[in-house]
Amino acid sequence: MSKILVVYDNRTFGEFVTFVVKTAGMEADFLDDPLQLFDYVTANTPTLIIIDVFLNHVDGLYIIEKLRMVEEYRSIPILVVSSRNEPLSLFDALERGAVDYLASPINEDLLIEKVKKYSATSPG
Amino acid sequence: MEKNDDISIDLTRFQEINESYLDKLSGDKVLTFDVFDQDGNTVFSSGRTISGDDIKKYSASGKRFFIPRPNESTGSFTHEIINKKKMNDLAEDTATMYGEIRKTGKMNYEQYLSAHAQLKSIADGLKPEDKTGGVLSLLREIKDFDHYTYTHSVNVGILAMTMAYKEMSSSDTVKMFALAGYLHDIGKLRIDPAIIQKPGLLSPEEYYRVMEHTREGYRILDSVADPAGNKAVPNMIKLTALFHHRKFQSPGYPFRTIPKDKSREAAYNELPEISRLIGICDMYEAISSTAPYRTPQEPVKALRYMLNLSNYLYSIEDTYRFLKAISLSLNKGQPFLNKGDFIMIESVKIALDTKKKQRIYEIARIEDISRSNFLMPKVQIFYDVVRRKKIKPINVDLRYDTSRRIVRVFESDRIKEMMRQQLQ
Predict the structure, then answer these.
(1) How confident is residue B316, by pLDDT bands cut at 50, 70 and 90?
(2) How far is B421 from chain A (nearest CA, A)?
(3) Which terminal residue of chain A, N or C, has fewer Cβ atoms less than 10 Å from its own Cβ?
(4) Which residues in chain B have their CB less than 8 angstroms from residue A24's CB?
(5) Quick one: pLDDT at residue B304?
């Protein structure tokens, strides 16, 4: 069973994404504290991580970089969330190893499509 | 559906208007609604001007005129129209003025005064009855100018002005909003037009250049001085040019560092109110009007899009202010949410013991909605998002439950169908 992890300190956004993914029949967990991410990943290996690069007091880009440094987590696909207004951070995130991005406001069909696509290729 | 012998038009949805009423709408005004005949065919479509001769011609051929009925008997459905000629004059002057500023890179005192006077005359022409009702036809009406920055500036100015007016602000505030909206993008005149009009994705360097339009705008406005050498442009207008791209959750630009003890949201809320609200008007205008390489969204789609951006790019409070003030006017007097829509509701609860704020999320379906309570409809709540389980459906009238607010509306038919299945 594929498990999607949503990491975001904005509850509105995170709960919405988690709900849509679950409604589409997939397992999903939501962490509203990005600092718990590493504990979570150690305990259960998600098939896909959805994360925003803009988090309060934590740099999302730094998290992506760290995840990419650990051998076991290197293959977990990461989807970043971006808005049209923040193209620069999007470039950075893709450069650091994110596979794709989601634009806000979230298009639900596109979200499901991308989640399905990348969790299918995930080894997790 | 109610049927009449000689008319096949749905009388619950349309009301008949007489010739003399229609006559009042003719001349240099623009229709903000479609006019139908008794068979339901469109006689005059919204966005066009009609002449007295048109009306005579159609009524001589036996046509009767119908317009869409407002949802509820309360609230008048007056068809106030911003004078098209004035809008076009303003757009024309803007084109000339912007052309000159682009050449010199500077705005002079006379240009500033004339912009001020133009907008003042439009603001003074607003009628008191439009504060509560009224339908404005402003966006996409200035079609004679295809240069995006001109029409965009005029539209944002008018949008911001109307919003302030509907909020019952003082006439000085209304004029301030008009001018701030009109001048918010003035810094773009110092950016290479080739970058601004470039199709597709920009390179990081080009983006950095475009972002500079906020600082450039501040500099242009800051250097405008009256003959005595005093600074002519009010601070709020300069700050709007500087800060209108700052965002609630994502940082926006110009970039800033946020102190450790402060959240991004708190930092956003410290910005001047006028720059936050004009940021919203700017976004609405950008998605709802024709821009290079982008298809415009219908008002109803654009308004739902704005709601779905709340608590992300803009705070819920500001988004609601915008939607409450002018969403009815922008959508021909109709709510942008509909009966049967699935929505996500946010409520904040304070725990009794720890006094900690907790956010609750629920999924609901709109059961009943009308013009007067379009952001606070009657809903049926059936799913608890936080505990991730279905709950026994409860009916709530959001008018009497102000702790619950709609923060998202679902757009995908697929998801809606899945929810319907799970409901059963």
Answers:
(1) very high
(2) 10
(3) N
(4) 415, 418
(5) 95
